[in-house]
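sorry for the late reply, my laptop died twice this morning and i had to redo everyting from scratch. anyway the thing you sent over, i finally got around to it. pasting the sequence first so we're on the same page, its 270 residues, then the predicted structure underneath. double check i copied it right bc i was rushing
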Amino acid sequence: MKSFKILPSALFLSLTLSTALFSQTASANGEITDQVNHLQEHLGQYSEEVTWLLDNFNSVVDTYEKQGKKATDSDKLIEFWEEVDFHSAIETQFVPIYASIWQGIYGVKQNIDKGEPVKVVRKEQEKLNQALWQALGAVKLAAQYQQRGLIKKIQTTEVEPTSAPEILEDIKTRLDRVVAKYAEKLNEVAVTLVHDTYLQRFEGIEGALIEQDADLVEDLEKDFNVTLPQALDGKNSVDKVRQVVESMKVKLNRAKKLLADAEAGRKSVF
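ok and here's the structure:
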């Protein structure tokens, strides 16, 4: 078995800063098995699966290099990824890296399908490999938090947030899932998720937020209904969509602070 690379220090540090990085209610494609609630017991399996994925992804690229496009079944890349339990482990724990893996898979696949030079495919393969190592590091860290009781068990049914801060955090998690679905080439699913998030979450706090900053509400409404849906038209890169989402998160963080300050002000009166 190959030795496992260490996560880049900057990423590892960012992951250790807060358990809030982990999405506790994100749902994986298909059935979520109980293994995602016992990560520590499955770390050996996940490590083996990552090594297996790296080897099999490499075999596809090797075939392309030696035998060309016609002899290469690029669909195998997706089949390999969907076959492993690690797939749901990372989707339920850290959605942004999950999206990066899909982005990497399609980066390799599309360049093979277009018949691009091998060096271009290898460059995309390296990005995919890096995303897999990062994902393994994220799951290992999540296992530690899970052992300490710092993150909740994965819910197979969605838990409705109640307070404004919880709703805003849920919105941000949903936006991460939008990026992931776009990376999976599920554009219509991503757009539907944006609309549902607006109707089911943002509209619930809209009135209270208008009282604090009407311009911010108008800006976010445009993001939900125009800017982000337009970015999900299938013509933009995943990075472009991620940039739109990150910009929205900045505004959502401001909304969270405004509503929290308003609530604190009301309590101080009484």
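Residues 164-269 form one domain.
thats about all i looked at so far, will dig more tmrw
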